[in-house]
Amino acid sequence: MRLRTGAALFGVWLAGPGMAALSGEEHSLMPDGVRLRGPVERVREYRVEVRSSETGELVESAYREFMQELRFDSGRLVYARSYLSASDDILESFLPPRPFFPVPAVDAWYTTRATYFGERLAGVTRSSDDGLATETWQFEASGLLQTLERNTRYLEPGTYLPDPESRTVARFSYIYDGQRRLDRTIGTIGGEIIYRESRQRNQRSCLTRVSIQDADLREVRDYECDDACRPVRITIGGRQMELEYDSGGMLTQWNLFSASEPVASTRYVYNEVGDPIEIAEETFGESVMRNRSYTYDANGNWTRMQEVVRSEDAPDDQQETFVLIRKIEYRSP
After folding, report:
1. Which of 151, 174, 205, 328 is in Cβ range 3.0-4.6 Å of 134 for a Cys bridge?
2. Nearest CA to 268 among 249, 289, 287, 253?
3. Angle at 40 between CA 34 and CA 46, to 5 degrees
4. CB-based burial of residue 119 (10 Å sphere; 0-12 exposed, 13-18 middle, 19+ buried)?
5. Three-state helix/strand/coil letters over 196-229
6. Which of 40, 93, 80, 112 has the alpha carbon at shortest distance from 324?
7. Residues ≥6 apart with Cβ < 8 Å to 121
8. How far is CA 278 from the centre of its chain?
9. Is the Cβ–Cβ distance between 53 and 308 less than 8 Å?
10. Cα-flanking dihedrals φ and ψ of residue 13, to 5°?
């Protein structure tokens, strides 16, 4: 969960289709950047939403259990499943008794499966339980992402059944330069190009420009980098993002401006091994502040994330608290 270049945070600024979830040298097979340390066997995640005032008095509560169950084989992720489920026992570990309302029944969303060729990740497939959406990533022998295929279907009118005639297959291909850096991305549907992305670098190999074109968008992103080729300023039209780093190269803050007016800002605080323990976000136009804090176990995996959201428009300084709990099972030695 280290944030050295900000690529994980600025997927829409730094990456094209499929690259926000699979970017750089680390491959994340699940949403939300699941990267785990140690002999992990299984992971389950639970989410709780609490709406309360700053005084701590409970105004309203709603319990929503979101689970991501991960399964590993010899330390490699081979299966993942995201769903809603009803369970009360997880609450006892971090909240006092409150009148929560579990979601009845189970509502599964996505299932992810990974395949390997020897020790190398060969492919990842993520499919929705309703059969309407499937995404498949294929990797080169060198480990670089080669293609992403999105297979989408729609429901028959007036039914909840997939329409077999409504299938759309979008395919994205990733082309790299001689130094294994992403150079171009091309997206097609039925042989017709629907997406193009190209990258330019200077003599020091620092990224200087990304050009994007699809059916609805023509966009140029200009980058200014420091001596270590880290982006310190990104410009898109009238918007500009400025990034700051500490002496160790860790991203400590970014600020977003529109026509020189501040739009948003995010600040990061890390522990001694470089994992974020606090992330503070502020959106100025909407007067919204988000503060996230993380707790880690002995293996360096976060087990509890709490997010507090405050808005000046909320009545009586009311705030929302979101808590995400990870239950991680490790293999016995």
Report:
1. 151
2. 253
3. 55
4. exposed
5. EEEEEECCCCCEEEEEEEECCCEEEEEEEECCCC
6. 93
7. 27, 76, 114, 115, 139, 143
8. 17
9. no
10. -95, -35
The whole-angstrom separation of Cα 95 and Cα 304 is 12
CA angle 116, 118, 119 (to 5 degrees): 80
Residues 6+ apart with CB under 8 A from 52: 58, 59, 60, 61, 318, 319, 320, 321
* Number of neighbouring beta carbons within 10 Å of residue 313: 8
Q: Quick one: three-class SS letters along 227-291?
A: CCCCEEEEEECCEEEEEEECCCCCEEEEEEEECCEEEEEEEEEECCCCCEEEEEEEECCCCEEEE
Kindly give the parts of the chain with pLDDT less than 70: 1-35, 51-68, 75, 83-108, 155-162, 164, 314-318, 333
In the structure encoding, which two tokens stand for residue 309, read together?
């959201």
Whole-number Å distance between alpha carbons of 173 and 169: 13
Write the pLDDT tens digit of every residue in 9-21: 333 333 344 433 3
**Contact predicate 275/299, CB 8 Å:** no
Residue 147 CB: number of other CB atoms within 10 A?
Answer: 15
Contact between 287 and 311 under an 8 Å Cβ cutoff? The reply is: yes
